Amino acid sequence: MVVIKLKYIPPVICSYTLVMLLFTVLVHFVTAPVEEIGRLPPLSETATYLPGRYIFITALILPSIAMILGAVAVFNSNRVLLSKITHGAQRLICCYGCCRITGVNITSLISAIVAGISLFGLAVVPLRNPDDNNLSLTLSARVHLMFTFIFFVSIIVHMILSTVTSIVFDRQLNQAVQNNDLSISSRRLSGWVIFKIVIICLVFIVWPLLPLIGLIVTVSSCSGASISAGTCGFLQFVTAVGAVDQYAFVLCIILFMLTYMHELRNSKMTLDDSDEYDEQLAALRLGEHVFNEIETDNGRLNDDEFEFNVNEQ
Description:
two-stranded antiparallel sheet; 4 strands; globular; CWH43-like N-terminal domain-containing protein; transmembrane helix
């Protein structure tokens, strides 16, 4: 029997994603034209030239599949935990009675599945082709931007709902400790739940703050005509700030996915139940042995009957 603890899978997937995306950026600086090397590109632009496009696709396809499967595993784990906390009633409420935790758990699962599908789509459909000199809104660019928008919105929804679920479960476990229902140590919030809250706060601070800083610097330093003509020297600074903002957002998502270790701490996957297989094989062999004995006894009985009939004749 081979048993795999699912809590060890998230750090592997997150490390793989981070390393592959960094490798994609480095390959872009090697393969991109000279005029593009001087600026920091967004992640989607690193898939413009070969072999960076193949690395970019490889870096995101596996996490997209793992995100969907991991969300399903977390959903099942939360459902089992909810059944234990409420003793099968499953009527636990959250947000001061505004919703039930079962609905939050289902919505979190749906948003994670949508995010995984969108991540797969933006990985496969490129934003730019090598022949494009600018970011013209081609059909490929439109589809890529649509997938990107859906991914960012759905993953934020999933992160918020997952954090709400973790907070509610953590408080219920603390209440169970006070009532001596469960044998765990008393605490306010676990470190993993606090880590989730910190990541959510960073997302809502860093994501809008950096583009706002770039916009303020550009507007205060350049005229409207120079900005429209593309001659403002701070436009490159704004592009770099936008790229850093995107990198920071993606890093927050990767760090948040590490919290699946806490959600899946008690989940296991069995690849091969060798004991059960041996028992079934032994039963099959026993049945075959009994069948052979019965067949042998029947053969002997038929031979005796044949000899008896011959003697009578």
